[in-house]
Amino acid sequence: MPKIKVENLTKIFGRQPHRAFDYLKQGRSKQDIFKETGLTVGVNQVSFEVEAGEIFVIMGLSGSGKSTLVRLINRLIEPTAGRILIDGEDIVGMNAEQLQQVRRKKLGMVFQKFALFPHRTVLENVEFGLEVQNIPKKEREEKAKNALALVGLSGWENSMPDQLSGGMQQRVGLARALANDPDVLLMDEAFSALDPLIRKDMQDELLELQTTMQKTILFITHDLDEALKIGDRIALMKDGAIVQIGTPEEILTNPANEYVEKFVEDVDRSKVLAAEHVMKRAETITLDKGPRVALQLMKDRGVSSLYVVDKKKRLIGVVKADAVNAASREAKTLEDVMDREVPTVSANTLLNEMFDLVAFSDIPVAVTGEQNRLLGVVVKGAVLGGLAGKVNRKTPSDAEEERQVMAGE
Amino acid sequence: MSELFPKLPLDRWVERLVQYLDEHFGLVFDVISAGIGSTVDLFSLIFTSLPDWLLIIGFTLLAYKVGRLRVALFTLVGLLLIANLGYWEHSMETLALVLTAGLISIVIGVPAGIWCARNDSVRNVVTPLLDFMQTMPAFVYLIPAIFFFGLGKVPGVIASVIFAMPPTIRLTNLGIRQVPKELIEASDAFGSTSWQKLFKVQLPLAKTTIMAGVNQSIMLALSMVVIASMIGAKGLGADVYRAVTQINIGTGFEAGLAIVIMAILLDRITQNMGKKKNVQEG
Fold this sequence. Notes:
The structure holds two protein chains of two kinds.
Chain A: E1 4-13, H1 21-25, H2 30-37, E2 40-50, E3 55-59, H3 66-73, E4 81-86, E5 89-90, H4 96-105, E6 107-110, H5 122-131, H6 137-150, H7 166-179, E7 184-188, H8 196-213, E8 216-221, H9 224-230, E9 233-238, E10 241-246, H10 248-253, H11 258-264, H12 275-278, E11 284-286, H13 291-301, E12 305-309, E13 315-320, H14 321-330, H15 334-337, E14 344-346, H16 355-360, E15 365-368, E16 374-378, H17 380-387, H18 396-408
Chain B: H1 10-24, H2 26-49, H3 52-66, H4 69-85, H5 88-118, H6 120-135, H7 142-149, H8 153-177, H9 181-189, H10 194-223, H11 225-229, H12 236-245, H13 249-281
């Protein structure tokens, strides 16, 4: 069961919102509907599922409805239509008390402008969610202190929020959301108000916290780089509707339409694309073959080096054309002239981490998977091509299958 | 014009209404009257039975505690002057009236303001009512006040409350509505009930604004004491009123000056109360 399941969630602002339903079903645009009815479509028939432990990023420009969407999830804004299931329970039909319970136990929220209570100390801010549940003072103080320690703010308990820097204030905001130990964190542009360096730190820290906490996080942002960095999956919104849902790689490499394509145009791909996205099939040979076969193969394929693998495609080394040439004259075996020092990266090494290696290697860089199996090679041109948007449109498992077929031939 | 549309008998309607209220709700008015009367008497008793030097020291210390040295000095000098001119007792009677009116304004005004802030329809009804209370000449509601409560201090207090309460209601409403939206969202998002939100977030953040309203109410109540003296409320107002009727310039000035001193004192002390609390708590 998904942690959060949203079905056809719709929010229309204005009087008698149902007037817009037919238009929405006909697929009329937000602008059209506003002209005809005077109603504003905030969120348009959105459906998605978020698994437990996943970071699901909702990304869009301002006015795309992403902030409205996150507020619908905890009903800070009442939905016009649709269902929101959290752990299988529809919260849209809940009465005020039930909703309060869900908000207290399951949903924590972090706000763009921190939204700390200026009249309360840091500790009292973090305690807030526990205080409204009437948890005894001692217990909630302890939990709040733990939450503060988690975000690295021990020792600041008695400061007032306005004595803290922006980054620290948002840590308090995060601690406040964590103090309740909710399953779900709703983060509305949580890092957008911070300056770039602090923002990056906070992103890293969130990811690190997440490895131990395993919360389900719904993260709203307008920053594509942020979305690509922290999202397990990303939903891209436009005019209140979701345009595409996918992993960062899918969004980048397989944009659903022109809008997404334009959106991802300027992104720094080297931070998202990995070796597996740009690698090519490796030209390989096994050790039981002689130098002549190797030379013929190089000639056929138009390459100057071959990777040497065993029967299970495990990488052993590399042979280069001049060495093989010499071997064939001097009647040596491939093993004699094989170079065991091979530049290697793993399938999920990001491009920006392998620039040096690729640039200064005179042979293609090998991409290896489990048990040192050779998955492919990366050549200089492919890295450039990847940065320019030319990437493998296959998922790694497809590529794997293909290689297996070829290996069988 | 007048032949086509005969005059609306508004005057008679109002008179009938007042008469009806007096006949059917006499008991209610008696209870209110007793309550207000005894509150004023209690304050009066405290202020007039304690020796003046003790009260002067007490007020000076209070002024020093909430305000600064300057306010304390002014309090000391001002009260000594009042005592010296011989208006001490009347000043204390006035203070009792003002405090009672102020207290009632807060007790009714703050909850009314909260209600307005939480409900737009209530606000839409109350706002014109407040305009009415503030702009209708104060003399006019002295008349029904006499009708219901007779002569003396009680109708004076009632008239003062009607005149003085609107700022408390308005500024309570305003203060709560001015609490930033994201703080309300944060409060809701963590599952607070409506009352928790009110007491833990809205009221603390609106406190400065509410205190400004209370300060205004007390100042307005003080400004009513002269008018209230026309229907028999005692105190400095009565001195001013007598001086006016006798065209006695000297007495008029002295009594007027005593009112001004009281006004400045009450203003500075209540103003600083709002600020001081805010500094302590955040």
